[in-house]
Amino acid sequence: MEVTVSGEIKGGVNHQTAAISALVKVTTAGTAVVLGSQVIEGPLAIRAIAGNAGVVYIGNDSADDVAATNGFELSAGDTIVLSYVKNLADIYVDAANSDEYVTWLALEVV
After folding, report:
1. Domains of the chain from N-terminus onward
2. Lowest CB count within 10 Å: 13, 50, 61, 65, which one?
């Protein structure tokens, strides 16, 4: 998995720095990758980048995986907004083609 992080926030009791957006690569089609490991505790937007050749799948089948048969399908340029995400580690991404990307953006920064 390749993750590129941009931006940061400072918050919480310990004034920890956390990413507010990132780019996540699905290197091998059919092999799901976790969206990240960060606690979000708020709404989250996930977008399949416009340059993708195929569709990506977002979700978690309760076995820490996602696939075409059980994921939420996003075509290139499509976005889904989840009203509440506790932790990025609960969301998985897979793709129909290798080397596809999604971006995510935390929508409420406290």
Report:
1. 2-106 (2.60.120.10)
2. 13
